[in-house]
């Protein structure tokens, strides 16, 4: 290892700071710098000056044409600093973008959570809709079954009334003899009946406004019942059937028809109303069934339930 003398204290040294102006080696403490500080200078050691050279350089006139390496390096640094100045603005913009991105990320996270919750609710609603659809299907099946049962019950009930006729318009008397009344009506329509042909005869409550109870006559034979109604209808074609004409008190009109169930009575009323709207000329009951026909040559329509009303639209 080379041995030098310190340019400040003239003592020997093996390592120290090197002045690039006077070209002398100096102890670190003589140079006024620590060894660690000198080592950290890196490439700047190539332009390092001792304190004497710094003072000598500072006393030189400004017009000196000499350009110090440090001055040149400072200009370069300033030029670089000017070029890097926009980077500060860019750094600020990047910081704002990062902040906005963080906010957006947080917002998206919240939105994703809301979307997941919304999807969960949709799935729950869809599941409920499936249940409702199944219930609706079951309800439809139940309604169809009930309609079928009601139609079956109505058919059975009407069948029990097949031999019955219903007489309306006869005023009620506490001392009346219903067998005598039916006999007088039979004589008027030229279709006499005896007690032996009648199973029972009675008055039943009425839902009509006048509260006059109609008379129900149950014949033992269906043919007798049908013949009695046919004779009554044939009679009224010439003149209305009244109590006075039948040797009965008053002068009220008498109506003789099949003894229909409540369901069939309601259906007959709706049929007559619909037929009037659609210009159907004929609506009648035969064998306890409702019939309709638009003209004399039109086909006959049989109505069993309200769904059949569409046939006369």
UniProtKB/TrEMBL annotation:
Protein origin, superkingdom: Eukaryota
Coiled coil: 87-135
Lineage per the UniProt record: Eukaryota, Metazoa, Ecdysozoa, Arthropoda, Hexapoda
SUPFAM superfamilies in UniProt: FYVE/PHD zinc finger
Key words, A-Z: Coiled coil
Ranges for domain FP protein C-terminal: 261-313
Designated name of the protein: Uncharacterized protein LOC113508111
Organism of derivation: Trichoplusia ni
PANTHER family associated with the record: L1 TRANSPOSABLE ELEMENT-RELATED
A Pfam family matched in the record: Baculo_FP_2nd
Entry annotated with the keyword Coiled coil: yes
């Amino acid at each position: 290892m080379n041995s030098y003398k310190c340019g400040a204290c003239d003592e020997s040294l093996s390592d120290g700071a090197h002045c690039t102006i006077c070209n002398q080696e100096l102890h670190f403490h003589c140079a006024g710098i620590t060894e660690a500080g000198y080592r950290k200078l890196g490439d700047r050691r190539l332009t390092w000056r001792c304190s004497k050279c710094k003072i000598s350089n500072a006393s030189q006139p400004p017009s000196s044409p000499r350009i110090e390496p440090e001055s040149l390096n400072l200009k370069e640094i300033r030029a670089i600093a000017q070029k890097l100045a926009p980077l500060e603005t860019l750094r600020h913009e990047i910081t704002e973008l990062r902040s906005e991105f963080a906010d957006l990320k947080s917002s998206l996270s919240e939105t994703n959570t809301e979307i997941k919750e919304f999807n969960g609710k949709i799935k729950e609603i869809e599941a409920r809709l499936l249940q409702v659809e199944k219930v609706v299907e079951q309800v439809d099946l139940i309604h169809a079954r009930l309609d079928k049962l009601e139609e079956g019950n109505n058919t059975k009930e009407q069948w029990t009334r097949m031999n019955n006729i219903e007489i309306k318009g006869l005023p009620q008397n506490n001392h009346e003899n219903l067998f005598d009344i039916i006999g007088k009506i039979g004589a008027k329509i030229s279709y006499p009946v005896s007690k032996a042909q009648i199973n029972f005869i009675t008055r039943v409550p009425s839902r009509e406004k006048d509260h006059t109870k109609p008379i129900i006559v149950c014949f033992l034979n269906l043919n007798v019942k049908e013949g009695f109604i046919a004779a009554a209808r044939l009679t009224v074609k010439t003149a209305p059937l009244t109590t006075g004409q039948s040797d009965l008190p008053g002068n009220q009109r008498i109506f003789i028809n099949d003894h229909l169930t409540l369901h069939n009575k309601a259906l007959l009323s709706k049929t007559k109303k619909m037929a009037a709207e659609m210009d159907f000329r004929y609506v009648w009951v035969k064998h306890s069934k409702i019939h309709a026909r638009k003209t004399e040559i039109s086909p006959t329509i049989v109505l069993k339930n309200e769904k059949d009303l569409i046939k006369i639209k």
